Amino acid sequence: MRVVSGIQPTGKPHLGNYLGAIVNYVKLQDEAHAAGGECFIFLADLHALSQPHDPAELTKNTREMVATLVACGVDPSKTILFNQAQVPAHAELQWLLNGTARMGWLNRMTQWKDKAGKNREGQSVALFTYPVLQAADVLLYQATHVPVGEDQKQHLELARDIAQKFNNDFCSEDAPLFTLPEPYIPPAAARIMSLRDGTAKMSKSDPSDMSRISLTDDPDTVMKKVKKAKTDPEPLPSEEKGLEDRAEAKNLVGIYAALTGKSTADVLAEHGGQGFGAFKPALGEVLVETLRPINARFMELKDDQEALDAILARGAAQAREHGLPTLNAAYKALGLVRG
Ligand code: TYM
User: Domain 2-184+305-333 falls in which CATH fold?
Assistant: First the structure.
């Protein structure tokens, strides 16, 4: 069992990152550890170069993201926790895979289409080739399980296509180089939506801070954001069918279910008939209680730059070692001569 996943250290991590991905980093880290496998979680700082960025902010956000992940339960004694920039094999393998990835495949990526919009010509090359780096990230470690939210599913399908084509083109049938990675997507929290618009994904890049719960928000802020969340005037239904066409209500019920580990049906059985005036405070409470220990741990860790850098340095050394055999095999398969 090889668990591999990444998160961009841009902005503050939010509830969507937590429920869609981080909760499963911790779950799969423990499963991999128990099964004698490995777990690699990295900060995708190279991916962050695909958008305009402030270098000082990137450095600060990288350290804060390490503190947040550890505060959420990613345990550096069980997980190889590092940033891409300290493991050059990610960028090297990306270049090797650039020969296999097709322009047409990248052109079809919805994230590219959404982010580039009408201004494709003005985008960085990095934004376009971003999914090839993502493929390199997981293929380098022969990932089997990749915990991600729904929005990354297409990128992982591309990683599988690249792996398959490389194996077909450059390896013998009985000795393929790359393992095909499987996405691991939580059913209840695959896509947490904005608190201001139930049709838009909760996102670090949304200009409105009220659209998302940051993992480091204090209890008052959390309560305020939940109370101000957009809803409709109807009470909650008693059955799931009643959530159809009610994007905001569905999102809040989904968040409640994911946080408490209950099914949507159970949440509606308990809260059906309630108006949002009653449901929102209940949701706010659950959120505050979930975030309380994360916040406390984050505050302890966040200013210890030396300790955070040491975690990354140690993880990077381990990652470099684990990635080397696959990187070397890729060079060899392609016929590249190296002394
Ligand atoms: P990023 O940094 O945008 O998000 C990190 C993780 O959080 C998930 N996520 C969500 N899940 C549910 N609801 C949401 N609203 C929501 N918003 C974000 C994402 O799906 C992701 O799992 N390209 C990736 C980083 C990456 C990566 C990789 C991931 C680079 N290389 C290799 C997996 C494997 C990204 O930008 O995630």
Answer: Rossmann fold (3.40.50)
